[in-house]
Amino acid sequence: MAAGNSSSVTEFILAGLTDQPELQIPLFFLFLGFYMVTMVGNLGLITLIGLNSHLHTPMYLFLYNLSFIDFCYSSVITPKMLMSFVSKKNIISYAGCMTQLFFFLFFVVSESFILSAMAYDRYVAICNPLLYTVTMSPQACLLLLLGVYGMGFAGAMAHTACMVSLTFCANNVVNHYMCDILPLLERSCTSTHVNELVVFVVVGIDIGVPTVTIFVSYALILSSILRIRSTEGRSKAFSTCSSHMIAVSLFFGSGAFVYLKPSSLLPMNQGKVSSLFYTTVVPMLNPLIYSLRNKDVKIALKKTLSKSSFS
């Protein structure tokens, strides 16, 4: 595994969420339930948007991609986490660990930018409705999506390349349920100053830029809503945006809490609990938030169910 105190490690042992034996099985079933709801919810939303032509609009194109991202990054993390509840040693190879880290970061950064693209879409729809079809043309949507996944790739590459350059110690127990940046840095034998700087800069951009975009969009949306005379129009505009705001607050709040606080202020066990929100809870809640609060999705679901029962 490792010969000497600072030689290269070929595998890591993931400590998991808790070391209390009596909690392992209940937590296994709890998170298995979460994972199944996440899979069904996101795949259901992807299928629903794909099958219903009246949902082929920019708003639902972004929602389709959000569900795809949530489906993928939940699949990158949760199966390995479930293993830690039922196996004595949850071993992951060095290559497997770096692969999990890359794809986790790719999807989590992509999610932060797809949420800001959705905020921009809502801003155009409410503040400039007459120019909506021109502004959010298929070409513009494609460029936004390329930007979303491009930023995801750039963020994942920056962190993973810095991580690969480190030498890890013989003590290869990672105090987490997945290969995340901060717990891996704890296992390094070499200096991590560059990595910590990259974390602060890249995470600052990946949380800062979307947060500013979202806040500016919603400040403009709010001022536009307040100018709407009719109560019905105002409540319709509020309901369109409220589900998005719930998802955004959960995702960015938990992400900033884990990565943008000094490690001395946030013990790793507390960090593990916080990271559960954006790795497990948010991908599960997103399809529920967007579908249960959305009239178009409810209509599409009724149509699809009536079609399948009729056939």
UniProtKB/TrEMBL annotation:
It comes from the Eukaryota. The keyword Ribosomal protein does not apply. Residues 41-290 form the G-protein coupled receptors family 1 profile domain. It is a multi-pass membrane protein. Keywords: Cell membrane, G-protein coupled receptor, Glycoprotein, Membrane, Olfaction, Receptor, Sensory transduction, Transducer, Transmembrane, Transmembrane helix. Belongs to the G-protein coupled receptor 1 family. This is Olfactory receptor. It comes from Prolemur simus (Greater bamboo lemur).
